[in-house]
Amino acid sequence: MDSRKLEHLAELATTGSFSRAAENLHLTQPALSKSIQALEEELGAVLIDRRRKPFALTAKGEMVVQRARRLLKDMDELHRVAAEDIGPEGLLRIGFGAGPWATLSRGFIQHVVEHFPRLHLQVRHGSGDALVGALHERQMDLAIVDARSFPSSPHLQAETLGHLHGSAVCRVGHPLQRLERVTLKDLLAYPTLNTSISDEAVRWVQESHGVDLDLRQHTTVECEQLETLLDVCARSDAVFLGVREAAHPWVLRGEMAVLAVHPLITEFSVPIALVSLAGRSPSQLTTWVRDFVADALDERHFAEGRPF
């Protein structure tokens, strides 16, 4: 398949206009139309609903555009790495907060090992405050943390790259799975496991569930080691209250399930930021880390059952 056809489709979806897409691609409109038609013939699917004015992507077209964008991004990365011979070199000191550590660190380290063998990576795991302190002391280059834990400072800069989502998770076969509707009261009938709960999360539970309670006072075990909490949850009747994406490996293995609590806990989200020292131009490594994290936090990872 000619990648240019995918590029043409992606640009058309971005602009929403044949004329603007053709102009951006330095093509004539007939040439762009011909390229899209050729792609449809090659895939054996209608991607554009031409009966609507303006045109609209079909359901199949939406899916192809999403995958095409990922493929084009991977191809760009491949060309960039090839042009740099063996990829980035030097030292990268990076820290992960509790949620990012559980959801991102494994894939991040694996990617470095497989693609950047000459990069010396130093990884830390700690609280947001500790990691931000290490940045101030110039003991670390980058930190990936809950954006709400990032203090206002003229010496640091932060960019929110995506969100992690709240959840209630239990082992497969848990008695709560037999309930058609799971309430907060149902959850609290069992031991609960979680990392530290923020004031914002407490207020959200109070407002959305119409209760006057501090969820922290009903916690059975509080621990910053998410993997430990999830292992215990998978082997007991305890319920994990925390980052949904952290439980993703257990869910994929069929060991745990996300409970549909009403109102939905997944509506509560945690913004994740990449934090660095202010005043520095983004290095090649910083740009790569930013792109990796933004892609990993894409909601499609969970929706499509892909590992993080």
TrEMBL record:
Keywords: DNA-binding, Transcription, Transcription regulation. GO terms for molecular function: DNA-binding transcription factor activity; transcription cis-regulatory region binding. It holds the Pfam family LysR_substrate. PROSITE patterns: HTH_LYSR. Residues 1-58 form the HTH lysR-type domain. It comes from the Bacteria. Belongs to the LysR transcriptional regulatory family. This is DNA-binding transcriptional LysR family regulator. It comes from Acidovorax soli. The lineage of its organism: Bacteria, Pseudomonadati, Pseudomonadota, Betaproteobacteria, Burkholderiales.
